[in-house]
């Protein structure tokens, strides 16, 4: 039986950049009865210490505070349980957990398994859908023990970036869906719900089986690529090395073929704008869906302009009398540059992170698209269709206890996946009647947690 020992805590203080947060820490809460990797199936819980002295923060108290539940997953790698502290990507400024505690949230930080992990028997045990299953098991633990825990477990808000944003979107979309039940049962997850109140998703790397075609819909025609490999130095600081190149003729052919697959997929979704008009694409990838995507980028540019940002060097925008009038999509894409070669996700040699995510207990890597399986160069096999579906939030929207509230952000300069990918998620949710706050924030690359004031404001509007 899963338990919460409410007297097993430490009271701690962290000071950074002249700011101090004091909190009660409950660490290493193993959230399943039969863990297969105990280091990555446990969670840290942090509570503003002043709640135990009867003080309120921002209108919240020990029982009413929302439970903010960020994950640390990136690249579908294992994500350790985190701590309030310094953010290495922000020159050591306070991280999200520090900020969330300061703001008055209870913070639950689960560890989650990832694509490279193996058990003692030599079998992989962190491949899809382990990341979703672990996050769900952690939520079940919180719901199961809600009466003994600090915070309001009916107000769980998941948060993550990139692969972590994908996980947050899966938590939001798949609540209590029976497809995950066998995995949760096998781990001895708590007998409780795994639905969440709201999902915050930064640049979610989702819809993987359609992400290659979406990428080429956007980037086809741009044949040079530019990315940066990241390593941590001994001090735990990120160091970036640029990698630049030209796509091969083979890759350019793949780009053209993948782009041609996207309109039929988009048109099969039956997406609509808020007036009920269909959002579609013609065979060339032009049409109302593209116009709507452009409109959202232009809205973002307009907000930047209104805020005093100089957009004179953005020659792909037409601005008249302080108003963004139009956008040259091809010139925009050339300006932000291509990051990935075609196919962007399901690599023909299966060397992408996503190929590794879709491996099995005994197979390191698999394909997850019919196209790349058909063009495979290394004798690979296709993942089970049911597994691929379990990793796509679109499978479940409106078919599970889907979260009512969504905040989705994808930087206007993000090149890790197509602008169309978060757009399709946001539009599908809206078309099903869910509350969605969606934007392509100006000037931002692939990243997250850059607007915590706005994120926390959104949470407060929902919870207070
Ligand atoms: C992440 C980034 C990617 O480009 C990708 O394909 C998968 C994951 C990430 O940052 O988590």
- Secondary structure class reads alpha/beta
What is the multimeric organization of the chains shown?
single chain
**Whole-number mean pLDDT:** 98
Number of helices: 13
Q: Approximately what portion of the residues adopt beta-strand conformation?
A: 15-25%
Question: How is this structure best described in words?
Answer:
The radius of gyration is 22 Å and the shape is globular. The chain is built from 13 helices and 15 strands. It binds 3,4-dihydroxybenzoic acid (DHB). The site of 3,4-dihydroxybenzoic acid has 7 residues, from loops.
Summarize the structure.
With 464 residues, the protein is an alpha/beta fold. The protein has helices at 96-103, 130-144, 163-173, 181-187, 208-219, 249-268, 288-306, 329-336, 353-357, 370-374, 385-390, 420-431, 452-463; strands at 10-16, 19-30, 42-48, 66-70, 86-87, 93-94, 106-110, 152-161, 198-202, 224-232, 238-246, 317-320, 323-327, 405-409, 435-439. The chain has a nine-stranded mixed beta sheet, with helices on both faces. Strands 5-6 form a two-stranded antiparallel sheet. Strands 10-11 form a two-stranded antiparallel sheet.
SSE order and pairing:
Layout (H helix, E strand, L loop, with lengths): L9 E7 L2 E12 L11 E7 L17 E5 L15 E2 L5 E2 L1 H8 L2 E5 L19 H15 L7 E10 L1 H11 L7 H7 L10 E5 L5 H12 L4 E9 L5 E9 L2 H20 L19 H19 L10 E4 L2 E5 L1 H8 L16 H5 L12 H5 L10 H6 L14 E5 L10 H12 L3 E5 L12 H12 L1
Parallel strand pairs: 4-7, 4-8, 8-9, 9-14, 14-15
Antiparallel strand pairs: 1-2, 2-3, 3-7, 5-6, 10-11, 12-13
Helix pairs in contact: 5-6
3,4-dihydroxybenzoic acid (DHB) binds next to loops.
């Amino acid at each position: 039986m899963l338990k919460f020992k409410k007297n097993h805590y430490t009271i701690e203080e962290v000071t950074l950049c002249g700011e101090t947060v004091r909190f009660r820490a409950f660490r290493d809460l193993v959230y399943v009865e039969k863990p297969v990797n105990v280091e990555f199936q446990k969670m840290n819980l942090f509570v503003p210490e002043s709640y135990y002295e009867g003080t309120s923060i921002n209108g919240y108290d020990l029982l009413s505070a929302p439970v903010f539940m960020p994950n640390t997953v990136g690249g579908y790698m294992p994500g350790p349980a985190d701590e309030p502290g310094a953010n290495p990507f922000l020159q050591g400024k306070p991280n999200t957990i520090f900020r969330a505690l300061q703001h008055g949230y209870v913070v639950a930080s689960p560890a989650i398994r990832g694509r490279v992990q193996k058990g003692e028997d030599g079998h992989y045990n962190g491949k899809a859908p382990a990341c979703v299953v672990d996050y769900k098991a952690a939520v079940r633990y919180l719901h199961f023990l809600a009466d003994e825990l600090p915070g309001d477990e009916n107000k769980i808000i998941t948060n993550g970036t990139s692969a972590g944003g994908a996980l947050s979107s899966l938590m939001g979309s798949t609540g209590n869906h029976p497809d995950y039940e066998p995995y949760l049962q096998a781990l001895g997850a708590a007998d409780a719900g795994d639905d969440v109140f709201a999902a915050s998703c930064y640049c979610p790397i989702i819809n993987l089986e359609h992400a290659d075609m979406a990428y080429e819909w956007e980037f086809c025609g741009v044949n040079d690529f530019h990315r940066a490999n990241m390593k941590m130095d001994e001090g735990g600081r990120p160091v970036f090395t640029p990698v630049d190149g030209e796509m091969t003729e083979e890759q350019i052919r793949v780009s053209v073929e993948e782009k041609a697959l996207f309109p039929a997929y988009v048109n099969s979704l039956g997406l609509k704008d808020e007036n009920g008009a269909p959002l579609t694409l013609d065979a060339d990838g032009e049409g109302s869906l593209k116009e709507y995507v452009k409109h959202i980028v232009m809205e973002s540019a307009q907000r930047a302009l209104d805020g005093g940002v100089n957009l004179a060097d953005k020659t792909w925008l037409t601005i008249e009398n302080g108003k963004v009038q139009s956008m040259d999509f091809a010139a925009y894409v050339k300006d932000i540059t291509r990051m990935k070669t075609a196919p962007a996700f399901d690599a023909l040699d299966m060397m992408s992170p996503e190929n590794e995510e879709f491996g099995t207990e005994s197979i390191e890597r698999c394909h997850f698209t019919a196209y790349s399986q058909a063009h495979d160069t290394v004798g690979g096999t296709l993942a089970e269709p049911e597994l691929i579906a379990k990793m796509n939030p679109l499978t479940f929207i409106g078919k599970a206890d889907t979260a009512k509230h969504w905040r989705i952000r994808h930087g206007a300069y993000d090149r890790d996946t197509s602008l169309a990918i978060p757009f399709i998620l946001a539009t599908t949710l809206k078309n099903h009647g869910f509350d969605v706050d969606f934007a392509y924030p100006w000037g931002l690359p692939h990243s997250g947690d850059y607007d915590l004031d706005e994120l926390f404001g959104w949470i407060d509007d929902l919870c207070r």
